[in-house]
Amino acid sequence: MKHRSFRVRMPLLGLALLAAAMNAPASAQTPALPGWTLEKRAVHSDLSSPVGMAYDAAGHLYVANWSAGTVLRFAPDGARSVFASGLSGPSGLAIGPSGDIFVASYSQDLVWRFTPGGRQSVFVSGLATPAGLSFDRKGRLLIANRRTNQILAAHPDGRIEIAAEGLQTPVGAVELPGGELMVSNIAGGISLVGQDGRARSIHGGLRSPGPGIVADRDGAAAYVVDYGGTTVSRIDREGGRVVVADGLSSPVGLTRTPDGNLLVATWGANAAFRLVQAR
Q1: Is the CA virtual torsion 73, 129, 95, 249 positive or negative?
Q2: Dist. CA 248–CA 229, nearest whole Å
């Protein structure tokens, strides 16, 4: 059978991630970046293996709950509701310019599209274990297509082109201000992809970089979670690393909050925590 239940595949994925983490080079001790504070109290708890997260223009937070097969929605006042259910392996999540919500199915090799009202359709299919999602400045949906070692770019009409290839198990990608892509490879570190589509490895010190990756709005860098470790780090385009937060338990999801801070979700606590930057 081509597709297994995500409830079976998830432990297999976890074993693969653990193996990758054990075989990856241990990261050197890196000083924390001044001005960032990890709040100890969870903003949202009782999640179920959260992966992709994103805020809409009205400040609602959407969370892809992998092991529960749901997408949760949290109102700005914290009120919680189930936005979508019965999904198979929801992983990456991104919100498009029109407000539609896009969710990758790691198990069914497709990306769903939801209207803000909850109407569901298949946006693209025929993928290969899609993980993290994000949008570039051209309005294309960037898809980390793990099994083919590619980053795909899906146009609004569903037409797909290759944005980058030759990667090492990519699970997340984000566009930097200069048009380059920074990619988190769960078994192969961090890569930088030039506008010519060529990728080069720039950092190998994380144990297992996860899908959570967010561009730094103030420069050519990105914040990246280390699923195989305990940190969120800022990686610049030359590969320099500074730790933003430490002490997390298997951080996987990451998004920017409406007030410009960061929200990180962990599998160890099944919860989401705020990272606040001093102003």
Answers
A1: positive
A2: 8
Which pairs with CB-CB distance under 8 Å and at least 24 residues apart come from 206-209? 206/24, 206/27, 206/231, 206/233, 206/241, 207/20, 207/21, 207/24, 207/26, 207/27, 208/17, 208/20, 208/21, 208/24, 209/171, 209/172, 209/184, 209/185
Are 209 and 251 in contact by the 8 Å Cβ rule? The answer is: no
Residue type, 170: P
The stretch 61-75 carries a mean pLDDT of: 98
Strand order of the β-sheet with 141-145 is 130-135, 141-145, 150-154, 160-165
Give the tens place of pLDDT for each residue, 195-245. Answer: 888 999 999 999 999 999 999 988 789 999 999 999 999 999 999 999 999
User: Which helix (H) or strand (E) element contains residue 22?
Assistant: helix 6-23
Looking at 164-279, list the stretches that DSSP marks H as alpha helix, in order from N- to C-terminal side.
none
- Could you give the CA distance from residue 27 to residue 156 in angstroms, rounded to a whole number? 39
Strands 120-125 and 36-38: unpaired
pLDDT digits (tens, 9 = 90+) for 104-150: 999 999 999 999 999 999 999 999 999 999 999 999 999 999 999 99
Distance from chain centroid for Cα 259: 19
The residues, ordered by sequence, that sit 6+ positions from 19 with a Cβ below 8 Å of its Cβ are: none
Pairing of strands 170-175, 221-226: unpaired
* Residues paired with residue 49 on neighbouring β-strands, in sequence order: none
Tell me how far apart the alpha carbons of residues 227 and 264 are, in angstroms, rounded to a whole number: 11
Where does the pLDDT of residue 32 fall: very low under 50, low under 70, confident under 90, or very high at 90 and above? low
